[in-house]
């Protein structure tokens, strides 16, 4: 299996950066402002053969531009996956776009989607895969469900908490 296909969960997980609370207190700032700082947590990575692995993640969010742009670093590991992702994303009127890069696997791609209230619906693309993303933020918790295509991973479910 080529590294880009096997690596797909890392590219997908960078989308966690797109979750942000959308309440009245944050209306004057961009959607990424509330993410500033360190987050950690985990979930489950489900392989196409039905096998599941525990996934642990740490993220660091650095918003800029009043919270409308974000630089993210994300590190995740399971029994058979380990990755270190950097991403830059922007919000323009609810439209989310950006890019991601994972240097150790020489993988990269793009992110696009929409933010509405406390949820994100997006698509991430790499050279040999794509994934749908459904993401919700509530207070200091983020939940994400990914549905990859073109990889040996069938699904990813992760919850992060702000530290």
Features:
163 residues, mainly beta, 10-stranded antiparallel beta barrel, 10 strands, globular, disordered N terminus
How would you characterize the overall build of this protein?
The protein is 7% helix and 60% strand. It has a ten-stranded antiparallel beta barrel. The protein has one helix spanning 3-13; strands spanning 37-47, 52-64, 69-77, 82-92, 95-102, 107-116, 119-126, 130-138, 141-149, 153-162. It starts with a helix and ends with a strand. By secondary structure, it is mainly beta. It is built from one helix and ten strands; from the N terminus they run H-E-E-E-E-E-E-E-E-E-E. Strand 3 (69-77) and strand 4 (82-92) form a beta hairpin.
Number of helices: 1
Uncertain ranges: 1-5, 15-28
For the residues shown, what is the average pLDDT? 78
Morphology: globular
Number of strands: 10
- Helix/strand order: HEEEEEEEEEE
The biggest beta sheet reads: 10 strands, antiparallel, barrel
Distance between the termini: 36 Å
C-alpha Rg (nearest Å): 14 Å
**In which range does the helix fraction lie?**
under 10%
Biggest sheet, spatial arrangement of strands:
1-2-3-4-5-6-7-8-9-10
Report the structural category.
mainly beta
Strand content: over 45%
Summarize the model shown.
This protein is mainly β and 163 residues long.
Describe how the helices and strands are arranged:
Elements: H1 3-13, E1 37-47, E2 52-64, E3 69-77, E4 82-92, E5 95-102, E6 107-116, E7 119-126, E8 130-138, E9 141-149, E10 153-162
Antiparallel strand pairs: 1-2, 1-10, 2-3, 3-4, 4-5, 5-6, 6-7, 7-8, 8-9, 9-10
């Amino acid at each position: 299996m080529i590294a880009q296909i096997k690596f797909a969960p890392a590219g997908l997980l960078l989308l966690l950066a797109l979750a942000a609370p959308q309440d009245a207190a944050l209306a004057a700032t961009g959607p990424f402002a509330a993410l500033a700082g360190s987050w950690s947590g985990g979930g489950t990575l489900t392989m196409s053969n039905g096998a599941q692995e525990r996934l642990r993640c740490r993220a660091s969010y650095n918003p800029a531009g009043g919270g409308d742009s974000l630089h993210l670093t994300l590190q995740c590991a399971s029994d058979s996956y380990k990755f270190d992702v950097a991403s830059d994303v922007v919000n323009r009127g609810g439209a989310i776009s950006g890019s991601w890069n994972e240097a150790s696997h020489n993988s990269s791609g793009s992110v696009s989607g929409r933010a509405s209230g406390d949820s994100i619906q997006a698509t991430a693309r790499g050279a040999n895969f794509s994934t749908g993303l459904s993401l919700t933020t509530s207070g200091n918790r983020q939940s994400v469900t990914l549905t990859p295509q073109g990889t040996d991973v069938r699904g990813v479910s992760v919850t992060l908490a702000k530290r």
